[in-house]
Automatic annotation (TrEMBL):
<feature type="transmembrane region" description="Helical">
    <location>
        <begin position="20"/>
        <end position="41"/>
    </location>
</feature>
<dbReference type="InterPro" id="IPR023395">
    <property type="entry name" value="MCP_dom_sf"/>
</dbReference>
<comment type="similarity">
    <text>Belongs to the mitochondrial carrier (TC 2.A.29) family.</text>
</comment>
<keyword id="KW-0812">Transmembrane</keyword>
<feature type="repeat" description="Solcar">
    <location>
        <begin position="220"/>
        <end position="302"/>
    </location>
</feature>
<protein>
    <submittedName>
        <fullName>Solute carrier family 25 member 44b</fullName>
    </submittedName>
</protein>
<keyword id="KW-0813">Transport</keyword>
<dbReference type="GO" id="GO:0009083">
    <property type="term" value="P:branched-chain amino acid catabolic process"/>
</dbReference>
<dbReference type="GO" id="GO:0016020">
    <property type="term" value="C:membrane"/>
</dbReference>
<dbReference type="InterPro" id="IPR018108">
    <property type="entry name" value="MCP_transmembrane"/>
</dbReference>
<feature type="repeat" description="Solcar">
    <location>
        <begin position="18"/>
        <end position="100"/>
    </location>
</feature>
<dbReference type="GO" id="GO:0015658">
    <property type="term" value="F:branched-chain amino acid transmembrane transporter activity"/>
</dbReference>
<keyword id="KW-1133">Transmembrane helix</keyword>
<dbReference type="InterPro" id="IPR042164">
    <property type="entry name" value="SLC25A44"/>
</dbReference>
<keyword id="KW-0472">Membrane</keyword>
<dbReference type="GO" id="GO:0005739">
    <property type="term" value="C:mitochondrion"/>
</dbReference>
<dbReference type="Pfam" id="PF00153">
    <property type="entry name" value="Mito_carr"/>
</dbReference>
């Protein structure tokens, strides 16, 4: 009987950095475009009161499609593409911190947890201002009555319309809240995404190893990793969704207090309110996780230093 192999992890020092960053931008952009509609739907579900606008994920999808067309599912997408910067910052921080922590421990769970949390801290510092603007754009159309800032969607066309709307939203945010307005919900974002990232990576490696023990020894590792990604994403999404609901409301409604927003949510909608947008989040995180894992692991293999290619088995 052939002995089962552990899944090999490609570390930072094994990579050709030029290839890694070149391929990484394309991979990140592809993932963003794939899952953006689900992100928009999740945001609207989390911000609405009860079921005042949509009864669920699929109801939201079809209503937006009928009322606003395909472009309605991509409101704010061009602004959101600037998160490519945070995406590159995230993976760089993750890999560098893993390398640093490995000097003190060989425990993969510890390395993944610390690196994942650190990467999210750096990425969110870049992402939050972009999210604040793109979420306001997401809420235009059917959801505009739920946000503080409004647009006249019929006054401009084409590129002028897209960039004009972005400038208008940014001007309104600055006029209302100053520079601080672009970091509204920063603490809530950290409380959401640092735990999410810190939980995702250890569970990803855990599920991958468990699947490798159950799968035939000749099963490609990439298939096992593609299965482990959605399992880790569903786990992390479930754990951190309550804070994600609070984050969305703080950023869209212009609230200042995370604790007060949490209390009001419980008072108005009960504990069930903490699960709002969870199905949309899991639905969006499943393809995201598959595309991300397959893309990221393939990216690392394509970026492997030439002298190491023949020494690895996938």
């Amino acid at each position: 009987m052939q002995q089962k192999r552990n899944i090999q992890i490609i570390e930072w020092e094994d990579l050709d950095k030029r290839k890694f960053y070149s391929f990484g931008v394309f991979m990140t952009m592809t993932i963003r475009a794939t899952v953006y509609p689900a992100t928009l739907i999740r945001t609207r579900l989390q911000v609405q009161r009860g079921k005042s606008l949509y009864s669920g994920t699929f109801d939201a999808f079809f209503k937006i499609l009928r009322s606003e067309g395909v472009q309605g599912l991509y409101r704010g997408f061009l602004v959101n593409t600037f998160t490519l910067i945070s995406g590159q910052a995230y993976i760089t921080t993750y890999e560098l911190v893993r390398k640093y922590v490995s000097q003190y421990t060989d425990d993969n769970t510890v390395k993944s947890l610390v690196a994942g949390g650190s990467a999210s801290l750096v990425a969110q510092s870049i992402t939050v201002p972009i999210d604040v603007v793109s979420q306001q754009l997401m809420m235009q159309g059917q959801g505009e009555h739920l946000t503080r800032f409004r647009l006249n969607l019929n006054t401009e066309t084409g590129k002028k319309k897209v960039f004009g709307q972005t400038r208008t939203i940014m001007a309104q945010i600055f006029a209302a809240d100053g520079f601080r307005g672009f970091y509204r919900g920063y603490v809530a974002s950290l409380l959401t995404y640092i735990p999410n990232s810190a939980v995702w990576w250890p569970f990803y490696h855990f599920y991958a190893e468990q699947l490798s023990k159950m799968a035939p020894s000749d099963c490609p590792h990439l298939i096992l990793q593609a299965m482990a990604g959605p399992l880790a994403a569903a786990t992390a999404s479930t754990v951190t969704n309550p804070m994600d609901v609070v984050r969305a409301r703080v950023q869209v409604e212009g609230r200042n207090s995370v604790i007060e927003t949490f209390r009001q949510l419980i008072k108005e909608e009960g504990c069930w309110g903490l699960t709002k947008g969870l199905s949309a989040r899991i639905i969006s995180s499943t393809p995201t996780a598959i595309v991300m894992v397959v893309g990221y692991e393939t990216l690392k293999r394509l970026s492997l230093r030439p002298e190491l290619v023949d020494s690895r088995h996938w």
